Amino acid sequence: MKIRVLRFILAVVFGFIGAFVAKVVFQSQQAFFIVLAIFSFGILGFILPEVIELAGRAGIVAIAAQIAKYLQEVQGSHLSVPTLGFNRKKKTSKYTNAQILDTSVLIDGRILDIAKTGFLIGTLIVSESVISELQSLADSADNLKRGKGRRGLDMLSDLQKQKGLKVVVFPAEGDSAKVDDLLVALSRKLKAPLITLDFNLLKVAKIKKVKVLNINELANCLKTVVLPGEKINLEVRDKGSGKDQGVGYLADGTMVVVEGGISYKGESIDVEVLRVLQTAAGRMVFARLQAPDLPDMLRK
What is the mean predicted confidence (pLDDT) over 258-270? Predict the structure, then answer.
């Protein structure tokens, strides 16, 4: 009701304005032009509310478009503002700190010890092809293969029980006979590193620009550091490959070859480190029997 009264008032007012313009400004004395001016200005006054409303909407839309354009321009530089639009699909992976396990890692078993220490967090992804390979080994007639397969399945079950660690079984895609190729493809798809002990898989993954985490390299970094000239005590357990050589081991499993140590097999002796050799299989230490300290009488 108020809008109708407002339209009527505006039409009358603009009609008078039209008559004034026709008679005074244009100095027209003809009734036809005066009536035409009154009618034209009256219509303008009648539709003026719609004109004002449309102009307001157009202004708001224009301002909103400018704001959206500005936000899109600055988003890629330093502001973390979501892009305006209808496409809300997330492009990031739904797995937190995802890492892919291969068959060799599960059979080895050290991955469980690492997980128990709390150094391994996030999501461990295991492909169905890896589980199928472990199951095939567990069903093998060969005792060694059967033991490896069962150990790998047990490790996977134990990993699923670890707190703070999520294990996800990922569906296999493609030919399950080519497990290594599937793992590399999965790693590239999820942009997740591949944890492996397989030397050939490690080489292929690096060629295809896939990040690889090698547990052997981690173990080598954590081995006890000994330097030439250092004196250590160890037990001679085995015979070495060379004449009169004995073999012992440090607490971390590092092999120590002792020159002339075979005579002390089964005994703990003091040895002096000669050199430390880093090989593809790990670190080896070469040592010799430590000369006994001379009495003070003989030193003078």
Answer: 91
pLDDT of 161 over the 80 cut: yes
Residue 253 tokens, joined: 């499993």
As a whole number of Å, the CA-based R_g of the chain is 42
Residue 107's pLDDT band, with cuts at 50, 70 and 90, is very high
Calpha distance 269→277 (Å, rounded)? 21
Taking the mean position of all CA atoms in its chain, how far away is CA 264? 52
DSSP SS3 for 94: coil
Contact 117, 218 (CB under 8 A): no
Q: What is the pLDDT of residue 175?
A: 56
Ordered structural domains, the chain, with CATH: 2-73 (no CATH), 98-221 (3.40.50.1010), 224-289 (2.40.50.140)
